[in-house]
Structures are given as structure tokens and as C-alpha cells.
Amino acid sequence: MYKQASWDEPVVFNLGKSGRRGHILPRAEEGIAESVGNMDSLIPSSMLRQNRPRLPELSEVEVVRHFTRLSEMNYGADSGLYPLGSCTMKYNPKINEVLAGMQTLSDLHPYQDESTVQGILRIMYDLERWLSELTGTHEVCLQPAAGAHGELLGTLLMHACLKSNGERGKRTEVIVPDSAHGTNPASATMAGFNVIVLPSGTDGCIDVEALKSVVSEKTAGLMLTNPNTLGLFEKNIGEIAKIVHEAGGLLYYDGANLNPLLGRVRPGDMGFDIVHINIHKTFGTPHGGGGPGAGPVGVSESLSKFLPVPRIVSDGKQYHLDYDRPQSIGKIRGFYGNVAVLLKAYAYILSLGFEGLKEAGEISVLNANYIMKKLMHVRGLTLPYDGQKPRKHECVLSAKPLKTDTGITAVNIAKRLLDYGLHAPTIYFPLIVEEALMIEPTETADKEELDRFVDAVMEISEEAYTKPEEVLKAPHNTAVTRLDEVKASHPKTMALSWRMHLKRQSAKT
Ligand SMILES: Cc1ncc(COP(=O)(O)O)c(C=O)c1O
Predict the structure, then answer these.
(1) Which of 239, 242, 250, 224 is nearest to 165 (CA)?
(2) Contact 90, 443 (CB under 8 A)
(3) Bridge-based pairing state of the strands 297-299 and 250-254
(4) Which residue's CA is the nearest one to ligand 1's atom 10?
(5) Strand residue runs (E) in 173-249
(6) Which of 268, 287, 372, 469 is the least crowded, having the fewest Cβ atoms under 10 Å away?
(7) What is the C-alpha separation between 332 and 47, in angstroms, rounded?
(8) Which pLDDT does position 40 carry in this prediction?
(9) 86 CA distance to ligand 1 centroid (A)?
(10) pLDDT recorded at residue 396
(11) pLDDT for the residue 262
(12) Which one of 252, 254, 392 would you pick to mutate in the ligand 1 pocket, going by the greatest count of ligand atoms within 8 A of its CB?
């Protein structure tokens, strides 16, 4: 059985001593030193900091040991299987990190003259074209910082399109299936649309008749994830696209689940007009923990003119930033997007090539189906919406029978899995499955790792019937055991920074 390290590690502010240093700044080059002189004199006095910031002062070895100990109390995609459904937590090759961290790239500044940043402009130009090719869209914008940010851009593009067609104010509704991720209705609402929730059919897919009954002259668009969050491919996608387009709406593709389709099917060919890609799921950067990410958006030809500026263009010799797009919605993010994450995607695509990406997608499907087959008959678990098999990249099981039989819930299974040295799957999502366990092993899990996961779930099911206390009180073997999750996310108790924590403490005394 797994046993996680547990250190009584203070916060970094309580380590070190005044005057300790872990880093020696290089001496300024002579020429620069002469021309710059005293740095303070270059900063207007009104902008000079009055008090020194309270920063921890530590030696290099203290810093390394502090973060090593913290990492030993953590679990990441580098530790083992991380089957967080719809998050595509794969192992990401380290070569991508090395390339993205190269000083020639990381030292670049977005205000540099175009002629001095031709290399990075070329990389971004090529990446846009590759993503365009992979998604079957006309043009791609790299700016958005995450999937949800891409959704916001997508829904703002719907607005721009409606405005130019003179339909703004008439088409006020965006349709979202009840299996969608919460960011879909949130993004549509932020963009000012009313959200119409579409109940899934008995097979877990879009109910075409239900869709027909909700589209109208008010429909601005439909947001769809394909494969959907049950891991099911929307088999009627052709008809769905026709219904939405004939009603005058646009079809939006939530690309969170694009991984299994790469090189096989393209959203643009399915009829989608706007497509976001979660770079941090599919292309070489781990998802989760709040970032960093990138959510490029691809669009069909008629929507290209609305994309944010600047656009990177080439005259065949040089790359340029083009701001001359009168119908652009403006900017969605500073400069050109999250360049380091985009660089990792560039390296990932280049190293795998088209065939490699396709193979990765295929193995992700194989792995998800292996897990599904092994677990769907485990005592206490069921496979809802079991009509369509195989699944794509993920499968969603329900622990409802286990809850009825033993009182053990999906969250208890998730917590107990931590004791087996495994990360838990996504739980309680999609909302249409009670006691949902949403498992996405990705292509980077080998058979031994998949078997370890399957065996652990089987043992937990056995424990639930024979020694439920063991599962109810899990995890036992981790650095931190049961957390008060309500307290952790309650605005009254949540402290987002050390300074905030200290303020709270002093207010109490
Ligand atoms: C299906 C789906 N859509 C959209 C998102 C939002 O993506 P992001 O977290 O990059 O904002 C997620 C996030 O996990 C998701 O699973």
C-alpha cells in the first residue's frame, strides 16, 4: 500500500533569516551600468516603493529542500495515473518544457521591434496553421488563455456576427446540453445570451427532436462538446449541424475532448463554425491547478474578419502583426497569448507529427474502453447510457448502487483511491449521472498502470461491502487526510495569500 511523505513544513515566510541569499545577480555590463547609472534615478519618485516588500530571505539549499518536501506531499501527472475525466491529464514530455524554457525565447519581449522577433512570429504563424488544419477551420487565433476564455471569445464572435447581420437583439439564445461543462452556460451568459438547457436523450446524446423543438428565430447558436462528457460521440452531428444552421444559428465546438479525434475527424468538417482547443489538455501542458493554459479559437471563413487583433501575417519573406481588421472584436488578451504554453504545443505537434497525434488519440480510446470493460461489472458500479459502445476517450460509471447498498458514495471511492497511490477520477460530473465517476486514463497510461487502477477500484468495492469504515474515513495514507472542503472554499475562511491569512489571524486576536 502507498504511503505519502508527510513533513511538518512551515510556509516559506517562516523559513530563512534576514540577509540570506540564494541568488547572485549578475553584474550589469559596463556599458549598460554607465548609461543607466543609479536605477532609482530613472524611476519617478512618486512611483518609488516606500517600504521594502516582505519577501522570504533564503539560501539556495533551503529553497530546494522546501519545495522538494512540498512536492513529496503532492501528487501530479509525473507521479502516476491521473484519470481526471475531461481534463486529459497526460504525461507531458519534458523536451517541450526544455524548448519553451530556452533563453532565446523566454527573454523576448512583446514590445520588441517586429524585425527582431521573426522566429517566434514564424512559430506562432505555423502553429495557427497546424491547428487550423487539425480542426478543419479557416483561421485560428492563439490569444485566449484557457478553454473557458476561448468560449467567451467564441460567444463574443457570435455577437459580432449577429451585429453585422443586423440580428443583434433578435437572436438572444444559446442552447447548451445538460451534459455540458459549467463553463459553457457561464460563458454564454457572460457574453449576454440567455441559456436554453437541452436535456440529453435516453442514449446520453443530443435528442434531435428535443433540439428541433428549442431552435427558433431567437437561436444564436448551440455549444456542443463532441465526444460529449459521457465519452460518447454525437452520432447525429450532421443532422444537428443542419438543424442549427437552418434555424440561422452558429455551431460552437467545446474542444475539451478533442484528444481522441485528432487526425481522424475534424470539428470543421462536422459543421462547427467556432472551435476552441484546450492546448493544456491535448497538446503538451498539464491541465489543472488553475493554469497556465491556452485556448486558441478557430473559425470558419465567414467569421475570420471578427477575430481579435493583431493577426500574424506573412508576405512570404517576413512576418508582421496586422492590426488592420476593421471588423475585429478587438483584443481578448494582452499581446499574442500565453506564448510559453503555445511553444510547448508547437514542440508537441512537431515531435509527434500527424501520424503520432492520430495514434495518441487511438490509444486514449483503447485505454478508456479497457477501463470501462473491466469496471462496468464491478459490484456496486453501473455504466449508465450503455447503448453506445465503445466510448471515446473517457467512460462515466455510477456508484449509485454502491451508495444504496453500503452508503459508500463516489466521493468516498475517490478519497480511498488516494490510499492506493492513484489520483481520483473526476466525480459528480456530468450532472446527468448520479454518483458519477468520470475516468479518462489518456494514452500515456500503460497496461500495468490501468490494471493497478482497475484492481484498486475492485478492492475498494470489496471493502465497501466488508469494512465500510475503511473507505468512509479514507484517505489514511496521505500527507493530508480528510479536508473540510466547505471550509476550504468558504469566503469567510478562505485565505488566498499569506498576507490575507495573517490579517485574518490578527483580526481574531
Ligand atoms: C468539457 C469541458 N469544457 C470546457 C472546459 C473549460 O476549460 P478550461 O479549464 O481550460 O477553462 C473544461 C475544463 O475542464 C471541460 O472539461
Answers:
(1) 250
(2) yes
(3) unpaired
(4) 147
(5) 173-177, 194-198, 219-225
(6) 469
(7) 29
(8) 57
(9) 7
(10) 98
(11) 96
(12) 254
- Give the other-Cβ count within 10 Å of 137's Cβ: 28
Residues 198 and 206: beta-carbon distance below 8 Å: yes
DSSP output for 384-408: SS-SS-S-SS-EEEE-HHHHHHHS-
Average pLDDT, consecutive stretches of 10 residues, N- to C-terminus, the chain (509 residues): 94 92 68 54 80 88 96 93 95 91 89 95 97 98 96 98 95 98 98 97 97 98 98 97 98 97 97 97 80 92 98 96 96 91 95 97 98 98 91 98 98 98 97 98 98 98 98 96 86 85 86
Cell of 36: 543607466
Predicted pLDDT at 266: 98
In this structure, which residue's CA is closest to atom 9 in ligand 1?
Answer: 147
Q: Which residues have CB under 8 Å from 1's CB, separation 6+?
A: 419, 420, 421, 477
User: What is the distance in A from the centroid of ligand 1 to the CA of 395?
Assistant: 17
Q: Which of 84, 86, 394, 432 to mutate to test the pocket of ligand 1 (most atoms within 8 A of CB)?
A: 86
CB 223 within 8 A of CB 254: yes
Alpha carbon distance 364, 394 (integer Å):
8
Query: Nearest C-alpha to atom 7 of ligand 1 is from which residue?
Result: 147
Q: Which atom of ligand 1 is nearest to the CA of 180?
A: 1
Rg of the chain (C-alpha set): 25
Please tell me whether the peptide bond between 491 and the residue prior to it is cis, using omega within 30 degrees of 0. no
- pTM equals 0.92
Residues with CB under 6 A from ligand 1: 86-87, 146-148, 181, 183, 225, 229, 254, 256, 278, 293, 295
